[in-house]
Every structure is written in structure tokens, then in C-alpha cells.
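# nightly structure sweep
# worker-07 picked up a monomer target from the shared queue
# config: single-sequence mode, recycle default, output format = C-alpha cells
# input follows
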Amino acid sequence: MSYQLFLDDIRTVEMVYPKLTEQDFAVIRNFNDFKSVITSQGLPAFISFDNDLGLDDNGEVAPDGYAAAKWLVYESGLDLSNLKFHVHSANPVASVQIQSLLDNYIKHLKDAGNDE
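# output follows
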């Protein structure tokens, strides 16, 4: 079963994608749930990333969308070669970080696949 994932602590799907609804995505509000859903359901067909995910239960800055992207690349063990994603964060620096990390990793996977 294929699904789409929307990672954002505040925004609704409709705020980012006016023609779509919450019915079209698994809406995830924090890093731990992001890992949990992907671990249990597998890699989504599409991920929409916010970066700033508010505060955790202790009032500290919560792990962000960049941490989620790093987890995908460095720890998940999933094949990301066909990952489709969009970064909808309003944080321009973090947006570039997430976009670049995933673009470069996916390009590396595809280039490595062509070497065989």
C-alpha cells in the first residue's frame, strides 16, 4: 500500500497544497512519529517536509525536518533511489539543507547504479 507523508507541526495539508486534503496524506507532527510511521509502513511514495517542528515535551527545540532527512539517508536503511519529495519549509536555509542532502544522496545512488 502506497501512501504520502506530510511532516509539519502546525500547517495543514490544505495550507501547502490547496487542491489536496488531509485524506491524501499521513499527517505527521514530529520526528519520532516520522520514524515510527516509516519504520512500520515503509517508505512513502512522497514526503512533504517542513523543517522547524516546534518544541518537544520538555520545552526544548524538537528534532527538525533536516534530522528526519538525515535519518532517512544515514540510518533508515531504506532504498531512497526513487524517493519523491518536496520541502515546504518557510526556513530558507533549512530548506536548502534538506533539498541538497536528499538530491545529492539520490543522485549518488543513481550514479552508483549506473557503474554496475
